[in-house]
Amino acid sequence: MTQEELFLKKLCEINPLLGKTHLLIVSKTRSLEDIKTYYKLGHRDFGENRVSELQEKSLALKEECPEIRWHMIGHLQSNKINLLLKTPQLYAIHSVHDPELVLKLIKSQEKLNHEVGIFLQFNTSQEKEKSGFESYKELLSCGKKLAQEKKLKLFGLMTMGTLRTDDFETEAQRCFQELNSLKQKLEADLQIPLQTSMGMSQDYKMALKEHSDWIRLGTMMFS
């Protein structure tokens, strides 16, 4: 089976399950050829964990893949903001995890020449090693700030399911349901439609049951 046949098989397996959910293929550590193959098959959304790798790939594929949409999904350090915002075809940042980062993004947005979506990351699992907002008050405050901006658009909320648990599915469902509740509350307070980014390879089926707008799949799309 060729690479293209394998990737087409992966898309044919996952696409019927998606409904209105968008598939974000996590392409970290993957080659430019892998990304180009999925692009040729019609896929457009790719996610990277590191700003430097994201920019390198975006520059390398800018001409060959003019419709590609890049998503930053890894932990974002403040000193990488300027580099990230200069990235060609940057579509969304899924990992905006605290008020300080929101303010720094707003201050640096003049480097953008197009609109970029923002997902505020909420720590629904309450695991200490994870970043993310932990109070609705802060979430609402940052949401109000972003709702006033032109180049940075508040797309919605992001979360990850609990890792350290004996009941993985139940905990994933709890985390995703909590994010949905937060999204609905924030939508009502801000009077704007919002999306959710939740679900990875190990828990995407639970995320689909909870009507996630974006699922982030990596290894399973390449093996």
CATH class placement: Alpha Beta
Strand content: 15-25%
Largest sheet: 8 strands, parallel
Fraction in helix = 40-55%
Query: Residue-averaged pLDDT, rounded?
Result: 95
Contiguous helical run count: 8
Strand runs, count: 8
Tally of discrete structural domains: 1
* CATH topology (level 3) name: TIM Barrel
Q: Find the structural class using helix and strand composition.
A: alpha/beta
Strand order of the largest sheet: 7-6-5-4-3-2-1-8
The succession of helices and strands, N to C, reads HEHEHEHEHEHEHEHE
Task: Estimate the global geometry from the Cα principal axes.
Answer: globular
- What would you say the CATH architecture is? Alpha-Beta Barrel
Quote the distance from N terminus to C terminus.
12 Å
Taking all Cα atoms into account, the compactness measure Rg is 17 Å
- The CATH superfamily is Alanine racemase
| Poorly predicted segments | none
